[in-house]
Amino acid sequence: MKEIRTRIAPSPTGMMHLGTARTAIYCWAVARHFGGKFLLRIEDTDQVRSTKEAVQVILDGMKWLNLDYDEGPIYQMDRLERYKEVVDQMLADGRAYYCYATPEELDAMREDQKARGLKPRYDGRWRPENCVGKPIPEGVQPVIRFRNPDEGAVTWNDAVYGPITVANSELDDLIIMRNGIPTYNFAVVVDDWDMKVSHVIRGADHINNTPRQINIYNALGAEVPVFAHLPLICGQDGQKLSKRHGTVSVLEYERQGYLPEAIFNYLARLGWGHGNMEKFSRDELAQVFELADCSRAAARIDWKKLEWLNQQYMKEADDARLAELAAPRIEARGGKVEGGPCLKAVCGLLKSRSATLEKLADAALFFYVEPKVDPETAQAALENGGREALKLFGEKLEALADMTPENVYHCIQAVMEEQGISMKVLATPLRVVVCAADRTPQIDVTLCLIGKENVLNRIKAALA
Predict the structure, then answer these.
(1) Which domains does the chain have, with CATH numbers?
(2) What's the predicted TM-score (pTM) here?
(3) Which candidate, 95, 150, 313, 341, has a CA 20 to 30 Å from the CA of 85?
(4) What is the DSSP pairing of strand 299-300 with strand 143-146?
(5) Residues contacting residue 138 through CB under 8 Å, at least 6 positions apart
(6) Which residues are the active-site residues?
(7) To 10 degrees, what angle do helices 319-332 and 343-350 make?
(8) Is 452 part of any known ligand binding site?
């Protein structure tokens, strides 16, 4: 069986979009499913828009999603000699030719075609048979065009959409090289041919490029890979995902406090399904993934579902890992983690009720800042028996030799029984004057994390 080889080939011209990330996940899954190879190629021939910063964004995004690639990154700009070699052979064989038409001339050609009700397309005016005896204009830098077949049609069996046919009469002679730089449709064919890519998996917006590329494959005598085109990702309104829908960059989700395994899981499920599987690991995806299970309909982002899924991963996450991820977020909010309660323990207490790392940091912050108790709120909390309950609790806590959640709970129970009060009468002032919060996690565990000395000092300050 031929080795399965897939690739993700983003252009470093901006952020790493969710669509690119999902495509990378599917390419990775196909390669891992068949025990093949997954490649990363950087298509950096757009020298105007490509930047080193954007390349780093791609590398960072791949690393964050744990998309391990077997080969790469491979840069197109390092392969210019190879493209020239192929183009020179095509020129020699008559499969490509120089075109000296100026941009102004081509604009005029298209306007004329539109005026006559024709589809704007290159008319082949510099094909060798059409310019016999025609002088080469001075000062014009020619481009090189691929000689597309005039007759017949291109048909391929798309792994997602099924059979697709496009007549060659619908295609014109596309430019394959300009000023020594290959164009997308040409470079991608040479790259995939040289790198023995067996499956080209990409967005459905590339379907129009596929017949052109297949014709180039055929002209080169190269084996045509399997093509699979993925429907685009839409916002909840059904429109193509864009900045107006919110986050479209995969690394922005890291900043928003999502775990990479949740984003990986969510994007994989966005347009693909396997039975009732909603939550799955990377290895589970690799085991069951099939391109045939991809939907032909556009997938819609559901932010609430993503948050729910992330919360499931938060609950299962290692406490030490969450502490490492939450610490800089707490510090950014003005908290001082060093010298405060064990952050690992705090994360273990809070993670089940925190949908994201950002919300975890918000919930944990009061452990790491000096409480700013509102005097009016504190006064209200101490009324109706609150002052007496808090005073008695402080006395019992001070008498404890060992401050554990169980012992603190017994103190609370003892105060309630001795004063005949409800839990709320004591819990409210504890939350307000000790934690400066109207809600906290389990109060006995929370007080233990804050520490006996801090709790007693805050109680004494409130009762003074």
Answers:
(1) 1-74+183-316 (3.40.50.620), 319-463 (1.10.10.350)
(2) 0.91
(3) 150
(4) unpaired
(5) none
(6) 243
(7) 100
(8) no
